[in-house]
Amino acid sequence: MVLKIFQKGFNYSQDGQGNRLVYHLQGCNMKCRWCANPEGMPVGGAMIREKDKSPRLSYKEYPIDEVFEEILSCKPMFFDGGGVTFSGGEATMQFEALKELLKRLKEAGIHTAIETNGTHARLEELFPYVDQLIMDCKHWDEGKHLQYTGVPFSLVYENLKKAAREHPRLDIRTPLIGGVNDSPEDVEHFLNLFEELKGPNVTFELLKYHEFGKKKWEECGWDYEMTEKAHVTVEQIKDFKEKIEKRGLQYRKS
Questions:
Q1: Among 89, 166, 182, 232, which is disulfide-ready with 28 (CB 3.0 to 4.6 Å)?
Q2: Rounded to an integer, what distance in angstroms lies between the CA atom of residue 217 and that of residue 224?
Q3: Could you tell me the superkingdom of the organism this chain comes from (predicted)?
């Protein structure tokens, strides 16, 4: 078994608790126009054309045995409850290889996390092998979710409910994007949805829209369609966060 990986590296507390080794897996079933890692969207990879460099394919293939050994060798770096995180793209697009690797890591005592859009029909099969489940909730409305991501919200909704019921640690993240999901009506619907999902095992977090992926879109030869209207203010994030906490919901602390 192999994994298609387009990026890997360490960061602290951004993609799960503590210091983590993060693998970005190739392929995504969503087509979000604001994606910060667009090169990870096509299953077959993207051709990246960086200035003064030869074009290259976005990913490389690694046997899972090799990835497993690399992770074990990094164990001394997993301080403050850290470990390994599989992100994307969409990590569950490479489901079988991911599941096998997560099993091995669990047996080896490595703290595991995945970042997922929550659409895979078999997501709950990974629950026993994932210590920290980080799921996106991009929109509350079925039609708008389909419009902006290419995937119906119903798929995400069912997995969010399962995870909230069954997983010991679920972190739900919502990217707040101007003109997409930031209206007062959107905020109220999100809050009602969050209340439905709340529990001692569930936290919520807001992510402010940014343009960090714009250059990558250009290097892939694609148009970056987001405009200035997509930006939200610090005040919007603060107000939404306060409303989450006023409802008695847990806001994730970095």
A1: 89
A2: 6
A3: Bacteria
Question: 160 in a domain, yes or no?
Answer: yes
Question: What is d(CA 128, CA 124) in angstroms, rounded to the nearest whole number?
Answer: 8
Q: Is 224 left (phi over 0), alpha (psi -120 to 50) or beta?
A: beta
- Kindly give the confidence (pLDDT) of every residue in the chain, 254 residues in length, as a single tens digit, with 9 standing for 90 and above: 999 999 999 999 889 999 999 999 999 999 999 999 999 999 999 999 998 889 999 999 999 999 999 999 999 999 999 999 999 999 999 999 999 999 999 999 999 999 999 999 999 999 999 999 999 999 999 999 999 999 999 999 999 999 999 999 999 999 999 999 999 999 999 999 999 999 999 999 999 999 999 999 999 999 999 999 999 999 999 999 999 999 999 999 76
Please tell me the distance from the alpha carbon of residue 24 to that of residue 86, in angstroms, as a whole number.
6
SS3 label, residue 129: helix
> Quick check: helix, strand or coil at residue 210?
coil
CB atoms within 10 A of CB 248: 8
Residue 252 lies in a domain: no
- One-letter amino acid for residue 171 of the chain: D
Domain with residue 109: its CATH number is 3.20.20.70
Is the Cα dihedral 145, 146, 150, 151 positive or negative? positive
Domain count, the chain: 1
- CB atoms closer than 10 angstroms to residue 147: 11
Helix, strand or coil for residue 132?
Answer: strand
The answer to whether 160 touches 123, Cβ cutoff 8 Å, is no
Q: Which tokens hold the place of 43?
A: 């299953």
- Structural domain including 136 reads 2-246
The β-bridge partners of 47 are 57
